[in-house]
Amino acid sequence: MAKQESGPQYYVSRIHTQVLNYDVYVMKKTEKFLYMLLLFAAGGAVGLIFYGGLFKEDGRATLMTTASNFVVFVFAGILAIKCFLPTITLSLKKKRAEKLKKQFCDFAAALTNALASGMNMTDALHAVYNDLQSQYSDAAYIVEEIQEIINGVHNNIPIEDMLEDFGTRSGIPDILNFATVFSTCYRTGGDIKSVVRRTTEIMSEKIMISSEIETAITSNKMQMNIMNVLPIVIVLMMRVMSQEFANSFGTIIGVVGMTATVALTAGAYKMGQKIMDIKG
């Protein structure tokens, strides 16, 4: 089961505004409800495939069979929510981080071009803000962050401090490293244009390599997902195609066999997720 980092969803910035903590992903109420409903239904259905039809007498369902089916459905549904909702949350957080990293790379590239044209840092930030605002939207993460940095500069907060705060909140090492290098170079009067350009090139190369790796293992991920679902499909087919098989699943040996199948499938899923996890 994936673990979600703890912490507040928002921080208060140096200019006393609410800024996002990218290390924590909090679902909206509607989004969370829909995911919980989907997991509950899917988990309950899978539970019935493996453990449905218990306590039958001479192949016929009894009152205990109906009650056990209800208990299995509810228990499996709740278990699915508890096990997979954190995994979905973590996946959504990773997608947001990837989006932010891509947007920041565009920001760094635009900043490089603005500085190369002879603009000072403040004017360059305004130019980059206008460019990215037209490229994305006002609600884009990077556009909001640049606006926050510009507001900080207007309130006499050093640009390097605002950028370091953003880098820390982002939870992305590349952005934090950029902010640290930028801060050191800016305060010591180094060649900020060269630093920004070189850092942008490195980030772009890393993103491209990660994308190539992700593309290369896409087919393997699909195969892994099919193998994880296959035991469920096989058990379902055996239940539907043969009443004798369906009845045998309700015996003690059948329950033990189903439990072993569930354990092996869960272990294979967890191992597969670790193998396929690409650290960007």
Distinctive features:
mainly alpha, two-stranded antiparallel ribbon, 76% helix, 10 helices, 280 residues
Explained architecture:
The protein is an all-alpha fold and 280 residues long. 76% of the residues lie in helices and 2% in strands. The protein has helices at 29-51, 63-116, 121-135, 141-154, 159-170, 173-188, 192-216, 218-241, 243-248, 252-276, and strands at residues 10-12, 18-20. Strands 1-2 form a two-stranded antiparallel sheet. The longest helix has 54 residues, at 63-116. The mean pLDDT is 87.
Question: Largest sheet at a glance?
Answer: 2 strands, antiparallel
Principal-axes geometry comes out as elongated
SS-derived structural category: mainly alpha
Mean pLDDT: 87
Please count the beta strands (DSSP E, at least 2 residues each).
2
How are the strands of the largest sheet arranged?
Answer: 1-2
Percent strand: under 5%
How helical, in percent, are the residues? Answer: over 70%
Annotation field: number of helices: 10
Low-confidence stretches: none
The Rg value, from CA coordinates, equals 26 Å
Spell the H/E element sequence: EEHHHHHHHHHH
Head-to-tail CA distance between termini: 21 Å
Set down the secondary structure blueprint.
Layout: E1 10-12, E2 18-20, H1 29-51, H2 63-116, H3 121-135, H4 141-154, H5 159-170, H6 173-188, H7 192-216, H8 218-241, H9 243-248, H10 252-276
Antiparallel strand pairs: 1-2
Helix pairs in contact: 1-2, 2-3, 2-7, 3-4, 4-5, 5-6, 6-7, 8-10
